[in-house]
Amino acid sequence: MFTIPRFIIEEHVRRFLEEDLYLGDITPVPKEDVKAKIVAKQRGVVAGIEVAKIAFEIVGVEVIEALRDGEEVERGQTVMAVTGRAGDVLMAERTVLNILMRMSGIATTTRDIVEKAKKINPSIRVAATRKTTPGFRLFEKIAVVIGGGDPHRFNLGDCVLIKDNHITVSGGVGKAIRLAKAASFTKKIEIEVRTVDEAIAAAREGADIIMFDNMDADEIRKAVETLEQLGLRDKVILEASGGIRPENVEEYASTGVDVLSSGYIIHSAKPVDMSLYISSEDSG
């Protein structure tokens, strides 16, 4: 798993808290110490634990126990327990729950799709896309990794990715790839294709990664077989993308590609429902 420096995570979390607190919390509560626990209301894969710890730490709340990112949680199970001033716990409550629920939903969905894909092809990777929530992409990508997936590129500077509109304005697959080779030698060149002929042209022009974009499984299988027959298959990483969901992931995993990229694992992931419950330190 990649390592994101703590200060970057903390900067994001401070902005999340500020969104809810820039006018403070005007709902009064007694100034007393309390204990609280976050409880899962459904089964899932937990993600966002380390982020939640930072959020609580920022407002002065101590985390006394917590599950680890990637652990499976059952309905009714405690995800995290904390102690601190009541007002401080309540200031962070909704932000922390939003982070945990969203990230856990993505990790849960990702793990489901990864397990289904690997039953068919144990070496295949399941990757995310850039169809993410503005401002929350980093955490959505982290959740994908916790769920067993690959983050794919984080931004436009990660690698060259030639899409259909790039091909159109460049005047074709070959011209687009030749233009892309002017970028740094440290960056891989990926290109979207929609036909077998485009895949052949891309492989011959020296693309590092060929993405079969919105092609059905039979078309992709034919393209992979053709590249093998021409001796071009081993020169490229092959990726399938477009409409890959839990109900069809096994079909795409059987096509012979190396990677399945799916926007579904982020944009269609349902949050894992959780609640925070407070008890007074003096309540026994």
From TrEMBL:
Complex and partners: Hexamer formed by 3 homodimers.
Similarity annotation: Belongs to the NadC/ModD family.
UniProt superkingdom: Archaea
Organism: Archaeoglobus veneficus (strain DSM 11195 / SNP6)
Enzyme class per UniProt: transferase
EC numbers: 2.4.2.19
Function: Involved in the catabolism of quinolinic acid (QA).
Pathway it works in: Cofactor biosynthesis; NAD(+) biosynthesis; nicotinate D-ribonucleotide from quinolinate: step 1/1
GO molecular function, one term: nicotinate-nucleotide diphosphorylase (carboxylating) activity
Protein name (Swiss-Prot/TrEMBL): Nicotinate-nucleotide pyrophosphorylase [carboxylating]
GO biological process, one term: quinolinate catabolic process
Gene Ontology CC annotations of this record: cytoplasm
Domain Quinolinate phosphoribosyl transferase N-terminal stretches: 29-104
